[in-house]
Design brief:
Blueprint: H1 5-46, E1 58-60, E2 63-67, E3 71-76, E4 79-81, H2 83-133, H3 144-154, H4 156-164, H5 167-186, H6 188-208, H7 210-235, H8 237-242, H9 246-299, H10 304-315, H11 318-345, E5 370-378, E6 384-393, E7 398-402, H12 409-416, E8 424-429, E9 432-433, H13 439-445, E10 446-450, H14 460-464, E11 469-474, H15 480-495, E12 506-508, H16 521-531, H17 535-543, H18 553-556, H19 559-572, E13 579-581, H20 593-598, E14 600-602, H21 609-614, H22 616-625, H23 627-646, H24 667-677, H25 687-698, H26 702-705, H27 712-727, H28 731-736, E15 737-739, H29 751-756, E16 758-760, H30 767-781, H31 785-792, H32 806-819, E17 824-828, H33 836-848, E18 858-862, E19 874-879, E20 882-887, H34 889-895, H35 898-903
Parallel strand pairs: 7-18, 7-19, 10-17, 17-18
Antiparallel strand pairs: 1-4, 2-3, 5-6, 5-8, 8-9, 11-12, 13-16, 14-15, 19-20
Amino acid sequence: MEKSLARYIWSNTRLEQIWILTIVAASMIPYFLSFDLPKQIVNGPIQGKGFEHPGQTQTFMHISFDVPVLGHIEVFQGLQLTRFWMLIALSLVFLALVVLNGLFKLYINTYKGRLGERMLRRIRFELIDRVLRFPPAHFKRVKPAEIATMIKDEVEPMGGFTGDAFVQPALLGGQAVTALVFIILQNFWLGMIAAAIVAVQAVVIPRMRKRLLELGRQRQLTARELSGRVGEIVEGIGTIHANDTTNLERADIAYRLGLIFSIRYDLYQWKFLVKFINNFLAQVTPFLFYSIGGFFALQGRLDIGQLVAVINAYKDLPGPLKELIDWDQSRQDVQVKYNQVVEQFSVDGLIEPKIQLVSPAPAGRITHPLVATNLTVIDDSGARVLDHVSVEIHPGETVAIVGDSGAGGEYLAEALGRLVWPDTGRITIDGRDLLELPESLTGRRIAYASSETFFFHGTLRNNLLYGLKHAPLTSADYDDEAAIKLKWQMVEARRAGNPELDISSDWVDYTAAGATGPQDIYAAIRPVLDAVAMSQDILDMALRSNVDTVTHDDLTSRIVELRQALRLRLQEENIEGLVVPFEFDAYNPQATVGENMLFGTLKRPLMTNRKLAAHPYFQKLFTETGLDTDLYDMGLEIAENAVELFTDLPPDHPFFQQLTFMTAEDIPTYEALVQKLNGKGFSAATPDERVAIIRLSFSYIEPRHRFGLLTQTLMDKIVKARAKFHEHIPADLARVIERYDPERFTASATLMDNMLFGRIAHQQADAPERIHTIMYDVFERLGMQDSVLSIGLDFDVGSGGKRLTNVQRQKLNLGRALLKRADYIICNRPLPALDHRVQDQIARAILTGLDRSENAPAVIWVLSNPGFAELFDRVLVFDRGSLVESGTTTDLLEKNGMFKELLS
């Protein structure tokens, strides 16, 4: 990277800087005129110079030039104005100059801002580009939070400085020199006084600010280290809690914050000392002007207009001068930051840009063997984890790698997947070094999966298809306005040195996955998910999801057909009792009291049980039907039972997971309410207390909670109140309550609830599993499996995929590798979270499901259990970084070597 920030800025913004410097030079002309005009106004119309006689006039705006060869050229003869109108005309000219100078500043500052933001965009992109080109080993030595902080925060001042790098000294220096020259032209000695003060400020203040720069550098380093430490705490929070080291971390953070405080306090002290001295020098000059200039005026050596003009000119001198000194400090500060960024991002062994070039064209198949020759890998401790290994793996061959953990097989797999770079030796394909091949070939035709998984924040679909997104293949459809906006964005990207790639385009290489487009991609996805035993998980996610009725209209429009098919299957298997359907004239005992009251669902978070219980219409309905006292009594008894059963349990006790009406944090509140209200009746409670008690009853289900609170009389009363509720429901409630309708899809309910249009009976323990199985069969028979799969793939995996279990993450990671249909599939102990039996099932499913034609991929699998080796054509046995045996399982068993020891 370029070591000098100024050279970096000039090399990337040369033409823009020349243009804005030209504008700055042009702005000095009206700036100088604005200094001279007050003198003309004071000496002319105000003091009457040239207007000694009544009615006398002067020429205004006479414009003429003496041009060599051409002689005298008169552009405008001017206007003859009296004293009053001359005052008005000169004042208007002064106003025009003020506006013109303001417009110059507006244009210059706007242009600087755009230039700075463009440069900030450029440097951030270049830094991220370098991160993408770091050698794999470098990531073991850096903290992600520190890198992110540098790119996000520490380069921020560089963007603002870009616009000021050349313009600011030219503009401010030009203004200061213009004001100083004007003062000297009015009076030499006053000019020398101003020049002396300027010289002191220009020499003394920057020297004093060197200490500020050093303190600023220390502040930046400590802040970056704090960011990295906080990132470590977030990533290692499980380890911290497991080892009771929260107070150790608090002590460490307190020490770091104390260090930052001391640095910042010193910074503030020094900063305001410098500011005090600078302000003092700035205020001394007007004192000298008033005293010395006044003395000259009294002696007649300086007229009043000149004195006013000098004072007015000096008024504009400290500002640019102070800003110029600030610019110099900013320049040094930003250069220090830039040097640190250059130091952090100047890494040896960066991947060449040509290896990562965009390639929309399909990658050709790898038809040559993968050959490792004399391969040696040394870890960070200096140990040889792979020692002079040579091996050749042919297309279509299945190879098992076995050995104890750390024996060397894992490192061979990482080297083949380009995750580790060998220290000596090399890996070649058709004589070409693997590390010199473009990623558009190796990243598409070599797939790698290990137990170390990472998923980006987004949907399951985006993460599953991530391995197919190599280049923008299909442009997005834009209307005219969006197309113009996109074109402007691409122009800006080019000016900022960013690639002109449209993220809104479709990047998925459907052909590589064996599909023709998004319409049949699920036909390629389903076999992969089946092979890694992930289909069931995704279908379960779909059933628990709310469905977008616009995106998945193909399913939601057939919900009545799906419900009928489910009912028919239940009847065929004589298990109709597993589901209690919703009926408007009947109470559903498997649903909550709230659901029975509403005969619908709340659109959360717009409406909650607490808000509903407090709604005036609801309270009026309760009073008219007598349900207010009934539900109050029920809620109070629920509170009494909950407090009695759970008050002594810790907040993380699993029993609280069974409570749908109360959390562990609510227990103390309801304990106090029970003590206050028990035995006092409905009228003793305040309106807020009634709401808090009544809302508990909304989540009550008799067969589940079994407090014996629901009588047939109360259920009948709730059904009658339901009809009355919907008969006169106000508009504000109608918008947030979606009524159950057997003929349409309920958008605020889950897919499973829509399919059931009822509730599963709680009495049978295996009812949910049996219902799930039947639903999957219904989806398959009606050709809706792809639609349901699509809904499941909409699931948000969270940050780093943390909303998935460890098992699900490993399955998904392996599935993503398989979906690429690569020529070489490298599996580096990809499923250690699963038991050996399930690992065996998945391995068999993958190997038996492979294409056995001439296009069959090679599979290299580092096994956790050597017993699986019989599934493979060849076995490589590693011990202490060396390849000690190679051959078929039969041959290796006959040798009575290490492979047989591993099996025993």
